[in-house]
Automatic annotation (TrEMBL), chain A:
<feature type="domain" description="Lipoyl-binding">
    <location>
        <begin position="24"/>
        <end position="106"/>
    </location>
</feature>
<dbReference type="InterPro" id="IPR033753">
    <property type="entry name" value="GCV_H/Fam206"/>
</dbReference>
<protein>
    <recommendedName>
        <fullName>Glycine cleavage system H protein</fullName>
    </recommendedName>
</protein>
<dbReference type="InterPro" id="IPR017453">
    <property type="entry name" value="GCV_H_sub"/>
</dbReference>
<dbReference type="Pfam" id="PF01597">
    <property type="entry name" value="GCV_H"/>
</dbReference>
<dbReference type="InterPro" id="IPR002930">
    <property type="entry name" value="GCV_H"/>
</dbReference>
<dbReference type="InterPro" id="IPR000089">
    <property type="entry name" value="Biotin_lipoyl"/>
</dbReference>
<dbReference type="InterPro" id="IPR003016">
    <property type="entry name" value="2-oxoA_DH_lipoyl-BS"/>
</dbReference>
<comment type="subunit">
    <text>The glycine cleavage system is composed of four proteins: P, T, L and H.</text>
</comment>
<comment type="similarity">
    <text>Belongs to the GcvH family.</text>
</comment>
<comment type="function">
    <text>The glycine cleavage system catalyzes the degradation of glycine. The H protein shuttles the methylamine group of glycine from the P protein to the T protein.</text>
</comment>
<feature type="modified residue" description="N6-lipoyllysine">
    <location>
        <position position="65"/>
    </location>
</feature>
<keyword id="KW-0450">Lipoyl</keyword>
Length: 129, 367
């Protein structure tokens, strides 16, 4: 069973959300997801300033095995992207919940966080896969 | 039913991620397929290929049978141990399988065929053997380990006894020799130096462990695929199958047209295809910008519109050695090396360069 930190929020499409301060959240993909995809070779991120809407495909994680869309888990404006991934996409494999983060979003509506899964809910969703 | 190779427990000990591969539970990687890939290009890696099917063909008519069964001519094999890569066709000149044939004598040959095609291969061989004085014997009691990479032979050498060392001393590429319990061959599927070693089931785990102790890195099917693709070697089921002619799969070099009076299965259809000159061909594609070419993506050429002028990627991947994507693709015959064609990737068209279907050999870029 892979690691699922309890302080994060999740969606069933395997993105995680960490609540930072001032209505900003950090988004990444879970350890379970990187394990399914295998060695990452490219990560295509949105641009800073992009307005994204929950459910949009906003990024692509391309591994040796497959290309996988990454969906916006929340709506808002992209305020920062992880530029380290340009040269080191393998950070998504080695540290999915830390250095392998993808982008940060300024939330349109903080109440949207309440509809996300907690760690237990996400763990149940992977069991059903 | 899931088959397990004799090395299954060793894979689990090394924390392999196991997947189903045509009914066999096989390691896809042991953590990182890219690191495994680099181990083979730079040092030494090993693959459990015990799932592959070993078939011995023996008897008074063994030579005549194989001259009829496959498109290359085993009569070219005259030195004991010499191996031949070739294809086995149906009457319509579609590829039933690709295989390696080792020659021991005119009455004694060993074939290594794909595991995914095991049943149909054996059925086909048995059917075609009617009237030939031969026996066809599958050898499931053996494991097979491919040790590949620039340091592979040196590391294996540390494990061999005097007789084995003498037997492999100076062995040229594409030879095999039986010495004691081991069958050691200078063949492989990576484009690197190394051996494929057939070992009795009872000795396989110990041999694998000794290789691990020598620092040989266990590698899974993931790395095996990126290595063979960089080397431009076909994978049956992707780059060719029963609907594809060897002329359309970069296998023309494995056909012996001479002597003209040798009858082999598929010869009439193959001759007609050659005369018509209308078979597509297998080329390499290189994408130097971001993105990964994938199996099944459509290729659009400047020749015109419609299926006649299009091609398809038969296998594509990210090349860990070159750090960009490469692919094998079947395209119209008039497409030339050096041309630019377009690939439909994730809803957009991307320009790629056409190359010969070979990208990396012995650790170096070759296009």
């Amino acid at each position: 069973m892979s690691n699922i930190p309890s302080e994060l929020k999740y969606v069933t499409s395997h993105e995680w959300v960490r609540v930072e301060s001032d209505g900003i959240v950090t988004v990444g993909i879970t350890e379970h997801a990187q394990g399914l995809l295998g060695d990452m070779v490219f990560v295509e991120l949105p641009d800073v300033g992009d307005a994204i809407t929950t459910g949009d495909d906003v990024a692509v994680a391309e591994s040796v095995k497959a290309a996988s869309d990454i969906y916006a888990p929340v709506s808002g404006e992209v305020v920062e992207i992880n530029e380290e991934l340009e040269d080191s996409p393998e950070l998504v494999n080695s540290d999915a919940f830390g250095d392998g983060w993808l982008f940060k979003v300024k939330l349109d509506d903080a109440s949207e966080l309440e509809s996300l899964l907690d760690a237990e809910g996400y763990a149940n969703s992977i069991d059903e896969d | 039913m899931t088959n397990k190779t004799v090395l299954h427990a060793k894979h689990l000990e090394s924390n392999a991620k196991m997947v189903d591969f045509y009914g066999w539970e096989m390691p896809i990687n042991y953590g990182s397929q890219i690191e495994e890939h680099h181990a083979v290009r730079q040092n030494a890696g090993m693959f459990d290929v015990s799932h592959m099917t070993i078939v011995d063909v023996q008897g008074a008519d063994a030579k005549e049978f194989l001259r009829y069964l496959v498109i290359n001519d085993v009569a070219k094999l005259t030195v004991a141990g010499k191996a031949l890569y070739t294809g086995m066709l149906n009457e319509e000149a579609g590829v039933i399988d690709d295989l390696i044939i080792y020659f021991f004598s005119d009455t004694d040959y060993r074939l290594v065929v794909n595991s995914a095609t095991r049943e149909k291969d054996l059925a086909w061989m048995n059917k075609q053997s009617a009237g030939f004085d031969i026996t066809i014997t599958e050898r499931p009691e053996y494991g097979m380990i491919a040790v590949q990479g620039p340091q592979a032979k040196a590391k294996v050498a540390n494990l061999l006894n005097d007789a084995e060392t003498a037997a492999v001393d100076g062995m040229k590429p594409f030879f095999g020799v039986q010495v004691g319990d081991l069958f050691i061959a200078t063949t492989g599927y990576t484009g690197e130096d190394g051996y494929e070693i057939i070992v009795p089931d009872s000795a396989a785990e110990e041999f694998w462990q000794k290789l691990l102790d020598q620092g040989v890195v266990p590698c899974g099917l993931g790395a095996r695929d990126t290595l063979r693709l960089e080397a431009g070697m076909n994978l049956y089921g992707l780059d060719m199958d029963e609907s594809v002619s060897p002329l359309a799969a970069n296998m023309a070099w494995t056909i012996s047209w001479e002597p003209e009076d040798r009858d082999f299965i598929g010869r009439a259809a193959l001759t007609a295809q050659k005369e018509a000159g209308d078979q597509p061909k297998l080329v390499g594609l290189v994408l130097e910008e971001k993105g990964v070419l994938r199996t099944g993506q459509k290729i659009i050429t400047e020749l015109g519109e419609g299926p006649l002028f299009e091609g398809i990627i038969t296998s594509g991947t990210f090349s860990p050695t070159l750090e960009h994507s490469v692919a094998l693709a079947r395209v119209p015959r008039s497409v030339k090396v050096g041309d630019t064609v377009e690939v439909e990737m994730r809803k957009k068209l991307v320009k790629v360069t056409v190359t010969k279907p070979s990208f990396v050999r012995n650790g170096k870029k070759v296009f």
